[in-house]
Design a protein that fits this description.
Layout (H helix, E strand, L loop, with lengths): L2 H7 L1 H12 L16 H16 L3 E5 L3 E6 L5 E7 L19 E2 L2 E3 L7 H16 L7 E7 L7 H8 L7 E4 L2 E2 L3 E4 L1 E10 L7 E7 L5 E2 L2 E7 L13 E6 L2 E7 L3 E2 L9 H9 L6 H14 L13 E2 L3 E2 L1 E10 L2 E10 L5 H13 L4 E8 L2 E2 L5 H14 L6 E3 L11 E3 L2 E2 L13 E3 H19 L1
Parallel strand pairs: 3-6, 3-7, 7-24, 8-25, 9-23
Antiparallel strand pairs: 1-2, 2-6, 4-5, 5-26, 9-22, 10-20, 10-21, 11-13, 12-16, 13-15, 14-15, 17-18, 19-20
């Protein structure tokens, strides 16, 4: 019996297993002994390991942070990396309850169905199908189950630094098909400037955005200023309202993901441009002139002086995601995504110098290095060959501005689960996975495991 026949025969069992995991609301919670990312996340990991043991696999775990199941023998190991934690349910669910695991109309619904419990269960049943079909791998096959992908990837950082075995190669079904072989480097930084305000205009509020990786759709400022100040402000999507002693200025934008800020309209930048029209004085005038002239609605860092690109992944992008004002200090949080062939040492000094010219100093910085495996590399070639054989479609690797779970461990790329042209429901209300796509993923994962483990 071949793998595909086995997988299709186990459809009902696979769906029941996935529904059981979806019903566990594995959103990060308060840490506890044996549950570093919360009780529900730990419960979900235990449920998954119990499933793997029921199916006859060896299992292991590290401190409730990472678990795994394994098949085969040999010194070398290939890995499939999936995660069991999910983002909060949020509002707007109409087709099912967020943690129902309901099956209807050819879909399975619930938070995690697509990201990433569906692919995780698909990997387990793919491995079982390989074993039951009689496949004997030259390399051990390990499925790693993470528990902190959505809020920092501290699970895999722990695994790496506490003796977890590293694979010779592998993939994460937490991205897109055909294959993602390039992920831009990401600098997430906060810069602040304290203002000594003088003159008739005093800033008392400046706020916008919720996260560094989202282009904000709204921003607001309040000023103490002369009553006739509103006459100076002009522009689309700007609302000026008199308040006691001054004005409230609101800007509307268009939200977009921080990896593609050019698809949105940054409300913080629009607000700065509006305020720069006022006859401000001193440091407040200098600050708003810098924000309006060097940042504004730009998304590639041209006026900041660190624009760059490469032929593989395209332009560097800049997203001003969050702004706040407290104790006369204006803080700005950015997500800067740089091309895959560039390095931190090339980008970081230019970024800090650009903000220092506006009087801003760095107060926080996090770096995720770029990931890039050339198309001719062994891993990329093998997985592309699998995709083409399984789908009949040409596999052209892609580079993206976002980051996937592949960055959490060396020697991995993102491979599935989303097919070109499919609706993307991850992190959205009514998250679902088509049952046929779930089964296709199981088949492709089985083929990929076999290819890498030969």
């Amino acid at each position: 019996m071949d793998c595909k026949t086995i997988i299709r025969a186990r459809e009902a069992e696979l769906l029941d297993s996935l529904a059981a995991l979806i019903r566990i609301p594995s959103v990060e919670g308060a840490p506890a002994p044996g549950a570093p990312f919360g009780a529900e996340v730990a419960r979900c990991l235990r449920e998954m390991l119990a499933l793997c043991e029921k199916l006859g696999f060896r299992t292991g775990e590290m401190d409730g942070r990472v678990g795994w199941c394994e098949y085969g023998e040999g010194e070398e190991m290939i890995a499939v990396l999936a995660h069991l934690d999910v983002v909060p349910a949020g509002d707007g669910w109409t087709e099912s309850a967020p943690f129902s695991g309901e099956v209807k109309d050819g879909r399975i619904y619930g938070r995690g169905a697509m990201d990433d419990k569906g692919p995780a269960v698909a990997a387990v049943y793919a491995l079982a199908a390989l074993r039951d079909a009689g496949f004997v791998p030259r390399r051990r096959i390990r499925i790693l189950f993470g528990t902190n992908e959505e809020t920092g990837c501290q699970d895999m950082a722990w695994y790496r630094t506490h003796g977890g075995e590293m694979p010779v190669m592998g993939f994460t079904p937490d991205g897109e098909y055909p294959l993602i072989n390039g992920e831009k480097g990401i600098l997430t930084g906060t810069f602040a400037r304290r203002l000594h305000q003088t003159g008739a205009y005093r800033l008392t509020r400046f706020a916008g955005g919720t996260a560094s990786n989202v282009s904000p759709a709204a921003a607001v400022a309040e000023l103490q200023c002369p009553a006739d100040a509103a006459a100076h402000i002009h522009g689309d999507k700007i609302t000026v309202t008199p308040i006691e002693g001054g004005l409230r200025v609101e800007a509307q934008g268009v939200s977009a993901h921080g990896s593609t800020p050019e698809l949105g309209e940054n409300a913080i930048g629009r607000l700065a441009i509006a305020l720069a029209q006022l006859p401000l004085e001193g440091e407040l005038a200098d600050c708003m002139a810098f924000l309006a002239g060097r940042i504004g609605m730009e998304t590639r860092g041209e006026s900041l002086g660190f624009a760059m690109r490469d032929e593989i992944s395209g332009e560097l992008t800049v997203n001003l995601g969050v702004a706040g004002f407290a104790d006369n200090t204006l803080s700005l949080t950015f997500s800067i995504r740089y091309p895959v062939t560039k390095t931190y040492d090339e980008v970081y000094p230019r970024v800090t110098r650009a903000f220092s010219l506006g009087g801003f100093a760095e107060t926080a910085m996090h770096h995720d290095a770029a990931l890039y495996l050339p198309p001719e590399s062994e891993l990329v070639r093998r997985l592309c060959r699998v995709y083409e054989a399984e789908t009949g479609e040409k596999a052209v690797p892609k580079s993206i501005g976002g980051g996937t779970y592949a960055k959490s461990m060396p020697g991995l790329v993102a491979f599935g689960p989303i097919f070109p042209g499919d609706e993307v429901r991850e992190h959205q209300p009514d998250e679902y996975m088509l049952i046929e796509r779930l089964l296709q993923n199981t088949e492709i994962i089985a083929a990929a495991m076999a290819e890498l483990a030969r």
